[in-house]
C-alpha cells in the first residue's frame, strides 16, 4: 500500500544524524551533483579546499564510522554467475519493491537522499551497484548490459521478490530496459530516468567527433592521486572536491579500492578504462568502431529500445529533464512511446533541469514515483 509522505520516523540517534545530514543538508545534493554529473564536475576541479591533515583525519574517522554503520544497516551482497554484487536496501520486506540501477560512475548511494521518503510512502527500495560501481568489482570475464540484467534477476530470486518496479538513471535506464527485454514477467512497471529510450549508436552516428566528445566524454573528471593508506586517499580527495559533513562521503568510501601493490585508489580511473572511456581518444574510438569497444560498452550502444518496447505491456514512467544544450535529449522518443501506448506511459518533463534531475529536484522525483506506483 502506498502512503502519503511525511517526515521520516527517527528511530535512533544515528538514524537522526543520517536524516539531518542527508535529507536536510543541501550540500549533499551539491556534492552528489558535482561528483556524478559531468557538466558540473568541470567547474570544481580547479578549486582546492584548504583543510589541514588533522582536520582531514578527524573527518576521515567520522565519515568511515558512518559509512560502516550505514553498510551494516542497509548494505548487502549477492553472488551471481558474473560477480559478487553490492546493493543498498531500505524499507520493509512486505512493501512494494522498487529496484534501481545507478548511473555511470555513481553508486547505490545516489538514492540515499530520497530513500527515506520513498520508504515512508510504502516502497521497498533497492539500489544496485553493477560492474565496477560502488564496491562491486569488475568481472574477470567479458560481460554485457544484459549480464547486469541477469544479476538483478538473481538478486530478486535471492530476496524472494517475484515482481518489482524496475528503474534506473542514465546508463541505469538502459539496464532497466535490458531487464525488461529479458525478464518481462518480473516487471511490474518501469521508471526510466533520462536514459533507456534512445538507441545510442544511432545517436552517435549522427554526431561529429567533437559533438560526441562534448556529450559523452568523462575525461575531465579529476584524477585523485593514489595514497599509501585509505586515509591519504581520502585526504587527497577532500582537498579537491567540496568539503562537507561526514555523510557526504558515504559514496566516496564505496569507491575506494586497495590494489595488489598496496596503494589505495579511487576507482573512477580503472572503471573508465574498462568502459572504453579512459581518454577522449579511447572514447571516440569506441563510438566510431563499436565492434572494438569493450563488451559492456558495445552492448549499450547496440541496445535498441524501439525494438525492445515494440510490444510494451507494463506501465512506464519517463523522467525527461530538459535544459539548454540538453546532453541527453529524449523528448521525441518519450512522446513517440506515449503516442503509441497512451495511458500506459507517463511522461514527466522537468524544465530547466540537468541530467541529475532526482538530485536537483528530489521532492518532485519522490512525488512522481509515488504517484506512478500508486496507479
CATH class: Alpha Beta
- CATH homologous superfamily title: Alpha/Beta hydrolase fold, catalytic domain
Shape: globular
- Uncertain segments are 4-46
- The overall pLDDT, averaged over residues, is 86
Strand order of the largest sheet: 1-2-4-3-5-6-9-10
Count of the domains: 1
What portion of the residues fall into strands of 2 or more residues? Answer: 15-25%
Could you say what the CATH topology is called? Rossmann fold
CATH architecture: 3-Layer(aba) Sandwich
| Number of helices, where a helix is a run of at least 4 consecutive DSSP H or I residues | 18
Instruction: Look at the helices and sheets and give the structural class.
Output: alpha/beta
Give helix % range.
Answer: 40-55%
Could you state the order of secondary-structure elements as H and E?
A: HHHHEEEHEHEHEHHHHEEHHHHEHEHH
Radius of gyration: 20 Å
N-to-C CA distance? 11 Å
Major sheet summary line: 8 strands, mixed
Tally the beta strands: 10
Amino acid at each position: 500500500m502506498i502512503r502519503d509522505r511525511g517526515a521520516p520516523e527517527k528511530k535512533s540517534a544515528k538514524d537522526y544524524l543520517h536524516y539531518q545530514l542527508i535529507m536536510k543538508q543541501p550540500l549533499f545534493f551539491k556534492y552528489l551533483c558535482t561528483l556524478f554529473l559531468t557538466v558540473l564536475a568541470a567547474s570544481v576541479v580547479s578549486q582546492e579546499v584548504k583543510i589541514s591533515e588533522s582536520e582531514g583525519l578527524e573527518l576521515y574517522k567520522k565519515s568511515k564510522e558512518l559509512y560502516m554503520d550505514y553498510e551494516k544497516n542497509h548494505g548487502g551482497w549477492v553472488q551471481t554467475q558474473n560477480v559478487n554484487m553490492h546493493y543498498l536496501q531500505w524499507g520493509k520486506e512486505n512493501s512494494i519493491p522498487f529496484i534501481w540501477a545507478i548511473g555511470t560512475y555513481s553508486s547505490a548511494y545516489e538514492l540515499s537522499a530520497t530513500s527515506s521518503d520513498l520508504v515512508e510512502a510504502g516502497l521497498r527500495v533497492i539500489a544496485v551497484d553493477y560492474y565496477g560501481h560502488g564496491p562491486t568489482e569488475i568481472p574477470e570475464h567479458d560481460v554485457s548490459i544484459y549480464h547486469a540484467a541477469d544479476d538483478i534477476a538473481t538478486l530478486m530470486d535471492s530476496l524472494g521478490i517475484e515482481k518489482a518496479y524496475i528503474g534506473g538513471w542514465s546508463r541505469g535506464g538502459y539496464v532497466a530496459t535490458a531487464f525488461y527485454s529479458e525478464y518481462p514477467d518480473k516487471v511490474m512497471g518501469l521508471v526510466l530516468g533520462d536514459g533507456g529510450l534512445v538507441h545510442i549508436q544511432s545517436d552517435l552516428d549522427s554526431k561529429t567527433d567533437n559533438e560526441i566528445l562534448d556529450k559523452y566524454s568523462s575525461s575531465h573528471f579529476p584524477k585523485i592521486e593514489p595514497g599509501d593508506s585509505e586515509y591519504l586517499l581520502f585526504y587527497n580527495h577532500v582537498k579537491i572536491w567540496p568539503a562537507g559533513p561526514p555523510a557526504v562521503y558515504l559514496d566516496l568510501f564505496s569507491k575506494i579500492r586497495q590494489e595488489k601493490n598496496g596503494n589505495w585508489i579511487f576507482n573512477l580511473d580503472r572503471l573508465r578504462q574498462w568502459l572504453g572511456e579512459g581518454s577522449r581518444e579511447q572514447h571516440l574510438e569506441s563510438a566510431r568502431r563499436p565492434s572494438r569497444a569493450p563488451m559492456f560498452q558495445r552492448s549499450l550502444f547496440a541496445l535498441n529500445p524501439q525494438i525492445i518496447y515494440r510490444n510494451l505491456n507494463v506501465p512506464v514512467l519517463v523522467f525527461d529533464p530538459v535544459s539548454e544544450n540538453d546532453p541527453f535529449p529524449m523528448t521525441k522518443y518519450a512522446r513517440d512511446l506515449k503516442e503509441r501506448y497512451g495511458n500506459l506511459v507517463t511522461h514527466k518533463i522537468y524544465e530547466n533541469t540537468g541530467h541529475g534531475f532526482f538530485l536537483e529536484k528530489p521532492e518532485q522525483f519522490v512525488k512522481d514515483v509515488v504517484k506512478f506506483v500508486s496507479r
